[in-house]
Amino acid sequence: MVTDVSKPGLDAADINRVLQLLPHRYPFLMIDRIVDMDGDLSGIGIKNVTINEPYFAGHFPGAPVMPGVLLIEAMAQTAGGLVVASRGEEGQGKLVYFMTIDKARFRRPVVPGDTVKIHVQLLRKRANVWKYRGEARVDGRLAAEAEISAMLTEAKL
Predict the structure, then answer these.
(1) Do the beta carbons of residue 108 and residue 75 sit within 8 Å?
(2) What kind and span of H or E run contains 48?
(3) Catalytic residues
(4) Structural domains of the chain, ranges and CATH numbers in brackets
């Protein structure tokens, strides 16, 4: 892991580390890196949105908008990366399965050229289930928010 120079003591995961932490691959990997990782407590996923994303061909031609459900997925992937990374060797070979989405709200569109910062904060943890509050922000402005929960389990790929 690489230390983020902006906040001493916090970890970061570049794209290579993200690919180690998560099973997702193109076209479904929704984050490019994770910064300010504080164990499984909080972190910020970064998504650079480009016109090359496959969903823009149909959502919407002439007025491309990133689908809101993919912003929620980016929150889940950011949280999942935190959970697996925080487990160290114990997290290797594990998968994080999405369980619930609550209080989802979409505030503004995300378009090609935007850099989305996905802030996730642990709300509670019980056994192998984590619940996070997520916010997707562009230029500091809230684009989407939700509460999500997921379960850590053995990989069955």
Answers:
(1) no
(2) strand 42-48
(3) 59
(4) 2-154 (3.10.129.10)
Spatial strand order of the sheet with 94-106 comes to: 2-3, 11-13, 33-38, 42-48, 115-126, 129-138, 141-154, 94-106
Question: Is the pLDDT confidence value at 135 over 50?
Answer: yes
Q: Residue 41: pLDDT above 80?
A: yes
Contacts of 155 (CB under 8 A, 6+ apart): 23, 93, 94, 95
Quick check: 3 pLDDT over 90?
no
Q: Are 51 and 66 in contact (CB under 8 A)?
A: no
For residue 136, CA distances in Å to 16, 40, 44 come to: 22, 18, 9
Q: Please list, in sequence order, all residues whose beta carbon lies within 8 angstroms of the beta carbon of residue 112, skipping any fewer than 6 positions away.
A: 49, 50, 51, 53, 56, 64
The pLDDT assigned to 7 comes to 58
The DSSP bridge pattern shows strands 129-138 and 42-48 to be unpaired
Condensed to tens digits (0 to 9), the pLDDT of residues 44-54 reads 999 999 999 99
CB of 97 closer than 8 Å to CB of 129: no
What single-letter amino acid sits at 123?
Answer: L
pTM here is 0.92
